[in-house]
Amino acid sequence: MISQSRNKCIFHISYISIYYNNCMISYDYYRIFYYVASSGSFTNAAKLLNNSQPNITRCISNLEAQLGCRLFIRTRGGVTLTSAGKELYRHVSAAVVQLDAGEAAVNSEIGLKSGMVTITATDAGMRLILLPAITEFRKKYPKIRFRITSMNTPPAIDQVEMGMADFAVVTDPLSLPKTCRSTVLSDMKERLYGTEEIRKAAEKETSLLQLMNHFPLVTMNTGSSTREYYELFFLKHHIPFRPAMEASSLEQVGAAIAAGLGIGFLPEKLAEEARYPGTLQEIPIRETLPIRKLHLIESGSRILPPAAHAVISLLKNR
Question: Where does the source fall among the domains of life (predicted)?
Fold first, then answer.
């Protein structure tokens, strides 16, 4: 049966009947039997099924009468199964579990026919992870809508923690609150880039310190995880961090580099897919750049809609 409540379709398995000795037995009786047997008492089953104890008792009595045998032994502490009850439970438990799984799957499919997924993401997370995944997802679920906000890692995580976003895709370094959890989705290799002219001029300047003394640095704004990462990287190698130009997105960093305004660090994949083919040239440096990570950030306590769960599942299994 499919019921309609506040414009939300919910599939319920009910009104299923099973014939036994020419007697039609309601599936609801078997379901109630399963919960009584699993929980060990009529009271516990009533709470689990949001029903009354007298009604639970009545249904079990009807089931026993229709089957012609006792299923439970009543005790002060609750109930225990008879030998017939144990045999019935062995079969019924498997059926109930499968039917519950089927019901959940149907409800999930219904939920994916509409809805909104709210995401926060860094520029790299958006370009390298989210856009390809959403393109794939919408081929199967074209009616799901997305609200994506591009922001730096710290505020993106804050949005998830406050319940303003279903999840986030961000770059490290990151500081994770106790209420959130992180899953690494992908590695992110970065390289130093400049124009062909700058690359030729820099051929003999193999150390980063020498390059900084000769060419202006283009980087992300203060507050971004990328800016924080390179400030720490320069500090570790005792190199003064003095950007000549700051940008609010990696695309702007790439555009400035392509225009010959300086050198800068970009994800390797982004540079290869840039809108300036042949313009961005890698500049080899002596220092080794550690491989950074792209992370999926989820709330550990918030219940998400089916569509958000489906997108997260896709991201984790790509």
Answer: Bacteria
C-alpha to C-alpha distances, 166 to 6, 57, 59, 160, nearest whole angstrom: 22, 42, 42, 6
The CA-CA-CA angle for residues 284, 287, 292, to 5°, reads: 95
The distance from CA 17 to its chain's CA centroid, rounded to whole angstroms, is: 39
What number of H helices and E strands is found in the chain? 13, 16
Tokens of 145: 């809508």
Per-residue confidence at 86, pLDDT binned at 50, 70, 90? very high
Which domains, from first to last, does the chain contain?
A: 27-96 (1.10.10.10), 112-185+294-316 (3.40.190.10), 190-290 (3.40.190.10)
Residue that the structure tokens 């896709």 belong to: 314
d(CA 106, CA 104): 5
Mind listing the pLDDT tens digit for each residue in 184-210? 999 999 999 998 888 888 776 578 888
